[in-house]
Amino acid sequence: MKKVLFVALSLMVAAAFAAPNKVKSKLGDIDLTKEKGGGSVVCTAGFNDELTIVKDGDTEVLVKGNCGQGWVAK
């Protein structure tokens, strides 16, 4: 019984760390750019769009939303 509880707890902890980080804009609609630091706009994410963080940079993050994937400032 203890082994079953340990395995169940381990799976719950692993699932919590594997869950993707979701974010929303606090400033309204935001432009997702092709390159880090600016560049051509891939798409514009709406204020209510939920974005998934793909990669975290120093001052910017690569996010993926309904409209596409691109870089935005933190």
Radius of gyration: 17 Å
H/E topology pattern: HEEEEEE
Structural class: alpha+beta
Main sheet makeup: 4 strands, antiparallel
The count of helical stretches stands at 1
Multimerization state: single chain
Percentage beta strand: 35-45%
Query: What proportion of the residues is helical, as a percent range?
Result: 10-25%
The whole-number mean of residue pLDDT values reads: 81
Low-pLDDT residue intervals, each spanning 5 or more residues = none
Overall shape: elongated
For the largest sheet, list the strands in their spatial order.
1-4-5-6
End-to-end Cα distance: 46 Å
Quantity of strands, as a count: 6
Which terms would index this structure?
single chain; 74 residues; alpha+beta; four-stranded antiparallel beta sheet; two-stranded antiparallel sheet; 1 helix; 6 strands; 43% strand
